[in-house]
Design goal:
By secondary structure, this protein is an all-alpha fold. 70% of the residues lie in helices and 0% in strands. The chain is built from ten helices and no strands. α1 crosses α9 (167-183), α1 (3-20) runs parallel beside α10 and α2 (27-38) packs parallel to α9 (167-183). The structure holds zinc ion.
């Protein structure tokens, strides 16, 4: 399924369910629902989330900066020979890596930074960094499209934000799970519980094909109806309350 459909369905449905469960729909919950609806495809080098987080221009800058990094490592790193030469050589090689490899490398470095520097702020950051590294190195529709990844992401959000309420981890967990459910509609399906070979696959559509577009449109339409029903009623309730307050 395409990223846009994942985003609309995942965010729309999870926020509707969040509201129906009686939890407040906070700005943080909206943001996390949006990210979580796209997160499973972080292992795909052309996914929306990846290209938005690391746009081409930033990648170019990163590539050129590698030359400076190489020089700095060579002359200033407090390392014994030959390790600074090795590191400098790695930085130079990174300059010429294809875009996809560079993107993955950048995510791994961000993950490492989160593990090393984030630990100080919250012990859960270590888990976040590990998840980021594993997710971005995994083959497409591999580990990120499993029950384990859904559980790990939900647990991470719970650990990081649970003390401030339940909206964020519920919205994020739902949006992530919805991405997997949507992908199970495709011909390829998903393998949610490896090493079990069992596939969740309804084969209603092929991504990019006509059948795929139709199913995506139906999904987006149903999401819009659910969203309008849940939040339309809330809006009317709210307007009525304001009106009553103003008129009393
Ligand atoms: Zn996917």
């Amino acid at each position: 399924m395409m990223g846009k459909a994942h985003f609309i369905i995942g965010t729309g449905v999870s926020l509707s369910l969040l509201a129906l469960s009686g939890q407040p729909v906070t700005a943080g919950a909206v943001a996390i629902a949006g990210v979580s609806s796209l997160l499973p495809d972080i292992d795909h080098p052309n996914s929306i989330l990846v290209t938005r987080a690391l746009p081409d221009r930033l990648l170019r800058i990163l590539q050129s900066a590698m030359l400076l990094v190489a020089a700095a490592v060579l002359f200033y790193a407090p390392l014994e020979q030959p390790w600074n030469s090795v590191l400098a050589a790695i930085a130079v090689i990174a300059m010429f890596l294809p875009e996809q490899a560079l993107r993955k490398g950048a995510f791994v470095l961000i993950g490492l930074a989160v593990i090393i520097f984030g630990e100080r702020y919250a012990p859960w950051n270590r888990m976040g960094g590990i998840l980021l590294i594993v997710f971005s190195l995994a083959p497409h529709r591999g580990i990120t499209h499993t029950v384990y990844a859904t559980a790990a992401w939900t647990l991470l959000l719970y650990g990081l934000t649970g003390s401030h309420g339940s909206s964020i981890w519920i919205a994020g967990g739902l949006a992530y799970a919805l991405h997997l459910i949507c992908d199970s509609l495709t011909k390829n399906g998903i393998r949610p519980l490896p090493p079990l070979k069992w596939k969740l696959r309804f084969a209603l559509m092929t991504t990019g094909k006509k059948s795929g577009k139709r199913v995506e449109r139906i999904g987006i339409g149903l999401t819009a109806v659910l969203f309008a029903a849940v939040f339309g009623i809330r809006l009317i309730e709210y307007a009525a309350r304001v009106y009553l307050q103003l008129s009393s």
